Amino acid sequence: MWGSGEPADSYYAVRPECTDVAKSRFKIRAGKTLSARKWQTAFSPEGHLDIGKTLSRIQRGGIHPSIRGEVWEILLSCYDPKSTFDEREQIRQRRRTQYARWKEECCEIFPVVGSGRFITAAVITEDGQPIQHPLVILETNQDKGSALPSEDGNSADSSDAEAIATTSEIIKKLINRGPLDKKVIQWLLTLHQIGMSDLCSPMIMLLEDEADAFWCFERLMRRLRGNFRCTDSSVGVETQLSSLAAITQVIDPKLHQHLDALGGGDYLFAFRMLMVLFRREFSFCDSLYLWEMMWALEYDPDLFDMYEESESASNKAEGSKGRAKSLRHYGKFERENMKNGAGNSEAPLPISVFLVASVLKNKSAKLLTEARGLDDVVKILNDMTGNLDAKKACSSAMKLHKKYLKKAKKT
């Protein structure tokens, strides 16, 4: 299916106890995969990158694992491809300093940061009131071997009492800071968000410096942050799920009607795919390959300036992107949006929505004949885990995108 080539799995160590890891379909193929040599020759002596040639190569065969981290930094607009080696190094050092300062501030606000521990429950309410959740007590005191408090609220032993006291001290420090700044509250509300680790962990693996991995993740979250904005009344990814429903209704009305009749008209069964960009549906190597294909297809050279200058970013987001660059500097998906005038009044849909739509379209016959309830829908979609072809998925998404734009124009 993928042709001959070097298996990519060998570049990522797997713990001995993990025996059920899905094998990657992605293979490193000479002449197609962006190699270290091709990457180096894409730069001028000063460091200017031929982004058009680079995007073309990535779209054909992905990125060699040995250079994946540094190429991702370009794809995610951490750096401007027109910049020089020296300019990028200056930005890198400035960001590392900024990251160290922010990390120190975060440690002062919530000492769990930087400790190697993690939390899976909220530590604060939306109005800034601290929460002393039993799970937080356990997770913030793992090194003390603490257990959860007993049901009657009394400590089971002295280690419990010590754990509660330690966590109470953290909470007390929050309270003593006085009314918390809105940005601090928003940050604290994200500490337990499920899904972000799926997006961040590959960057920690690919980039040696923690600060560089953070900035790569920060750029990705600028695209995806809306997916994680959840309240008591709405799910952050709800907008994309609504768009997915609209696309399916146009492309495959029978399937949409069937899903709606089963009670799946809200498309929540696709929540995970959109939330963590198919991280659970593909093997580890294939999910990385899928991501870089998506980012290459969506690449917009204007994003670096938009991210760096927040004021001009908001102005451009409202309508007037400067399009002075050559079209070859943009990804194929972005070029298609430009050609069809998408984004003039509102932001165009990301390719991930069309990827999910293409998967549903591919499974349409099976869903129509075998799904008699939402459990069946979930099972049919779960059965494809590890069996998806990343390159074919992107190709199908591109075709579906064109088809949708044509049909949407007629309606």
TrEMBL record:
Domain named Rab-GAP TBC: residues: 62-298
Pfam family, one: RabGAP-TBC
UniProt-listed PROSITE patterns: TBC_RABGAP (PS50086)
InterPro entries, A to Z: Rab-GAP-TBC_dom, Rab-GAP_TBC_sf
Domain of life according to the entry: Eukaryota
Name of the protein in its database record: Rab-GAP TBC domain-containing protein
